[in-house]
Design goal:
The complex is a heterodimer of chains A (330) and B (539). Chain A contains 13 helices and two strands, in the order ααααββααααααααα. Chain A has helices at 2-23, 27-55, 86-99, 101-104, 124-143, 153-162, 174-192, 194-199, 202-224, 229-240, 252-267, 275-278, 309-322; strands at 107-112, 116-121. Chain B has a four-stranded parallel β-sheet with strand order 2-1-3-4. A four-stranded parallel β-sheet of chain B has the order 6-5-7-8, with helices on both faces. In chain B, helix 16 packs across helix 18. Classes of the chains: A mainly alpha (330), B mainly alpha (539).
Chain lengths: 330, 539
Amino acid sequence: MKALFSFIVVLLLVLVAYAGVAVANQHFLFGVIIPYAAVATFLIFMIYRILKWGSSPVPFRIPTTCGQQKSLPWIKQSKLENPSGLLGVAGRMALEVLFFRSLFRNLKTQLNDGARLTYGEAKWLWAAGLAFHWSFFWILVRHLRFFTETVPVPIQFVESLDSFLQIGTPLLYMTDVILLAAVAYLFVRRIGIPQVRYISLIADYFPLFLIMAIGTTGVLMRYIYKTDIVSVKMLTMSLVSFSPAIPKGIGVLFYIHLFLLCILFAYFPFSKLVHMAGVFMSPTRNLANTSREKRHINPWNYPVHVHTHDEYENDFRDKMKGAGLPVEKE
Amino acid sequence: MAKLPKPEELSKIDLTPPKTGWMDTPVVIKEGMFCHGAKPKSLEIVGFPNPRDWRPMDADWKLPENWKDILIKGIAERLEKYRSFRLFMDICVRCGACADKCHFFIGTGDPKNMPVLRAELIRSIYRKEFTLAGKLFGKMAGARELTLDVLKEWWYYFFQCTECRRCSVFCPYGIDQAEITMIGRELLNLLGLNIEWIAGPVSNCYMKGNHLGLEPHTIIGNLEYMLDDIETITGKKIKPTFNRKGAEILFVTPSGDLFADPGTYTCMGYLMLFEELGLDYTWSTYASEGGNFGFFTSNEMGKRLNSKIYAEAKRLGVKWILGGECGHMWRVLAQYMDTWNGPADFLEVPKSPITGTVFENAKSMKMVHVAEFTADLIKNNKLKLDPKRNDHLKVTWHDSCNVARGMGMLEEPRYVLKSVVNNFVEMPEDTIREKTFCCGSGTGLNASEDMDLRMKGGFPRANAVKFVHEHYGVNMLANVCAIDRATLKPLMDYWVPGVNVCGLHELVANAMIMKGEKERTTDLRGEPLPGVEAKEEQA
């Protein structure tokens, strides 16, 4: 139900863009106003979100230690899994952000006959997650060609690497295939595993369908219903130079693609997708395990009621003396 | 109390989620799965709100009129105070990687025991009260109203989490259910919804210095029993000191070590080790608790109980503090104590008087784990060891959750263990070190009325022990945690009969040859040493 609902919402969004452009001729709205509004929403509310997170302090140093601590000099410390310095933390975070280190640990716990538990390899989620995020990133970088007058060498390199299989005309980008396959896997997994389906919200299906639709419209435009790339670039260049103008000859498919992307941008700061920024701020990962070596300060630490030794001694003085314990006051 | 089902029944775990969505599946509080509610007296002693007689099975929990208000304000306050909380409310993508990592989920199959869903119990309220989408779209945005049913669900499931952090190891964003449970329990405590098994020890510890409520003369009495046993076994008469000013080191251990076996054997181990070293140390009856059940109540209560350790160290004028074998005690000491009650600038950087080793890693908080201390002794050949005395044991090592995932003390105890026993076998690699499984009874859930829950939660740990028991004949499960020592024994008796439980220093003391000791014929438990019976027969 939740999946179907999300699917229908995405379908409706496609229809909105279609009707808005092909029927109502609102090219300026869909080509200029909505994109500006979406990007502004993304930037403003992402910054707001990050500042909001940042406004809450980290009162305690609580890294999840996943390896040997630094202690005696002859015991080998696990510097990446249990870092004690900036370099180690940077390494740990890099592994986490770039390669999804923690997800790589994933296991499948299985209850077998005779009440025997086993822990099997379970790398598919990691692989699909990594494939999805990296191909998305790669595709974004490729799209930068639309935002610079001459295409910079690094972007050309990204493109040629992406199409090195030399299949078809125009050349097939591998990331297009990988992205769609990975998103499809993530969706199948979400409905296929009963527990994962049970925890899934609309907010989990919606971005999957949205990204699937963005990818599909992009693929259609490149490989099947060819779009006037020159006009598209005129539009995007006019947008980045803040002198928006709608060139003639851009098909409705492009506007659908763009509109869905705008929805993604605008939706982003209010959704679980904020994990993109949040992962950098996770105190169980981005802190060195040094709370014994160096005092971590809690900005809101406050004095508390304690039961002092004097009070304790008052309660038990006779018993203490009886047991031969030294007392402060006879 | 409900009768505990047989292992064959308990290990039939149904993993099919209910037909109804989790928000539409009201909580059913089941006998054997929860602990008694906190008694009014236990709350009054430490000044906690809403002390009254209440029973979790009753419909009426005798809550204050404005309980919703209190909770919402409580959430707001904690969002301001903890970045972890605010962040973990927002960034979960519900990938489910944490689900089958939780021992309570593995053991119960209850979907609300998946860490992700346990967190959603509170996230759904956060969305409703603190996010625009939740306010506008309600259930469609994963938000729901805070109702009495929701509150009961919180209570039931936040006391079905032992804050072991295993889920956090696997989470791609490091979301730590322990943080969420800690805050969840703090919120529940605002309404007087603690369990007696935590609230009792907390009030005991506050007034008497330890969870068990041992008064000063009882502590000494208990230790004297152990000293008598040591004399019988080794011929050595030991005279430890208490509350002694001017000692070099203050020793603090969980009070469980003073109270019941097998913790008491570990305690005998400390006494014998320190005697053999001629350590200038003292016990304290005021700071007679290393553990901290306050930590399972609220941040503030944790700090209030913890304060005694530094205060006593200062009063006695010691140079540094040595800590006994314990799990959550060391999470608190390692990640909280210095921040709460430091700086301990009246102490010196810990330095072993025997080896001269300076514990740079504890430079600021000034407290050393006894496993670190002993590893250093053995590395420097300061102990005469005869591991053959432990030859009747095939030992495996249980990494306690908190020292593994809240500190990273993995190799020190292994080094000690390998030096004092000849037969050591690791459990399967996905069940040890940072992936270790909880005993199922941590965070104050080690009561007797929730045995069902404990046996279910401890199932994965027991299962791994069973593997090495059946394949390698392991008969001893060693660890550095007082709660483990108390709870793994019933867990073994239930799932893996034939496996005993011990602390690290029991094995150290078994192997350690003391100066001038008589020829030992038994280990610390009074069991004949390997080869002794045979010798007697020959004679």
